[in-house]
Fold this sequence. Notes:
By secondary structure, chain A is α+β, with helices and mostly antiparallel strands. Chain A has seven helices and 16 strands. Chain A is 21% helix and 38% strand.
Amino acid sequence: MVRGIVLLLPALALLLATFPAGQGSVTVTANATYVLVGRFLLVNNANSTVRDFVYIPLPQNTTFQRSYVISMDPPPLRYAVDEDGNRYAIVLVEADPGSKVWLKVEYRVSAAGYRLESAPRAWPPLDVARKYTSSSGYWNVYNETLIDLAYRVAYADTPYDTARKLAEWVVGKVRYRVQFSRLGSDHAVVRGLFDYAIVGDCVEVADVYVTMARIVGLPARTAYGLLLSSGEGKMWLNMSTAAEEGDRLIEHWGGHIWPQVYFAGIGWVDVDMLDGMQANVGVFSERHIVFGFEETKYFGSALSSVCVPSYLTLQYVEYEYKGGSP
Amino acid sequence: MKRVAALVFCAVFLAALAAAQPNYWIALNYRVTFLGDGSALVEALAHPFTIDGKSLFGSLEVEQDMNSSIAGLANYTLLMFSDNPKLLKHTPFFYEKRLNEKVSCDVANTGSLFEFNGAYVLSARIYLNTSSYVKPLDGSIFEVKVRDSFTSLDVRSWIDVIEFRFEGAKLLSYRWEPPFARGPSDAGGDYLLWVNFNEPQAPDFYVFVLEAPGFTYVGEPPEVNATLTTVEFDGTLLKVVVANTGSESGYVFVRAVYRGGEQARKVYLPPSGSREVVFPEVQGTSVEVELYSGSTLLEKRVAEASTIQPKPQPLPFPYLLLFAALLVAVIGAVYFVKRRRRSAVARAPTSRPSSP
């Protein structure tokens, strides 16, 4: 028996040594495939018939996500790509005065959860650093308070240590409150009696993280989409009651946004601190469905909404999903 | 065309819940005149109206609302020429109400243009040589991109009509992005006119190659004056100290270029402050360290790496190390067991009690 173990060990060693464990290694922790059905109710509040272009963000294709449009009703006029590379559909809707129109979309999405196995050390090349550390309307890297905070809590010699220190700080400062307009990092960090707090929901948390990461020279952006609570379920949002609901809204709605940071040799890595309230640098669940990224747009992306009509008014949204891990 | 209020924002798939603001639309026309010195005169013409097409020009409530959002319109205008409006050089914006202007748009997406009388006009002169959307080509020839910043912000918004004039600057070629958008509806030797009935038809970018005799590319101006005070190696770590020598605060980029790669980091420097920047895993025997602020290369140093150690090959830690430990333990155990057996066999006759 001893001889058997001795013989097995070199084979085991060979297997483990070929398993990616050096810089840049990522382990897939889970796989899931979902069928996602979305229904959007649009209302024409005008006194005239309206022909409206409606913009529908789509689940994206990424290293950890594969997406397919099964159907769209009405069918899309065109698929297009925005400045940040996000694919979306344009649908033409005609509605009489006072009428209501349903849009229905159906997607199949295969998503993988993953875990970063190493701590990347090298900084990115200049073109990446320039592009993804710039200032914008919601990510003001010239805010003196945030500059002071960022260098105090997150300045480190390597990108991974910077990302982790910042995530640890941010997650400890969150004072969660559903927010109905985007504050931007300038207004999301408030000074209390003894300490700073990040007041708002996932948008504010993501904006503060991205801004502070950019301040200390770590390329960062946001990803947006849905965070599913289980393998099967339904989420909905009624625009006319959302404001009254306040924080209770998250009991039935999973729209989400979270930061990503760029590590040379690996690429974009998710940092979703609100999924379990932990400094999840490169710890990402398969319950995330990515609908797009905000990288360079000065005022973020309007496509971070589920359905973007022009003349019509979005009144109700629901997503039903089935599937999960095989 | 831009919808005001009641939209704007559904950050994270949340509804935009309209505040008590007027809900109206704005017809947007632009006039951009490229001049021989490499600058551009820009005029934004706006006319508010209801969804039913009724003009709101002169409405006190809407006028107040528009007046309060001039800074926003100015920002949109700068964003047509740069990703970084803070570093784009321009004259102060001038805002006025003009009764004799006409502003056109397709009011209800019917495919026909409606002309409104009167406009709120915001104008400024923009120096393109500081624009991040300008690419110098050859001497006084350069490519300039003009972005529809309204579409960029909100896919539902777009510039209804945009006219480009070339006065002193010579148009050599032009194109637009994406290619499926419509081209100019009218083109002459010194002007181009785009009429965009809806957003899908409207280009996201208008791109021109121009020759302007007075054009000298500057790029984004430096934010600070800074210098490299220390460049030293510690094994494969490159340690750089950068110091702000001026009284302004701002950002610099430190870049290390070496055989087989490069690394760069942006750092903020307070007035007279300094910062240590560490680049791990620098390889090779020679490293070029560059210091930038804005587009300007402030300093460049070559450091010969007499002290650079060759990069150690990373151990496939922890698995190989674990395996080595296990192997040693198992071999040790096997050796120990075999030795004990041998010694037990050797000692057996003497240790066994003698039979009676």
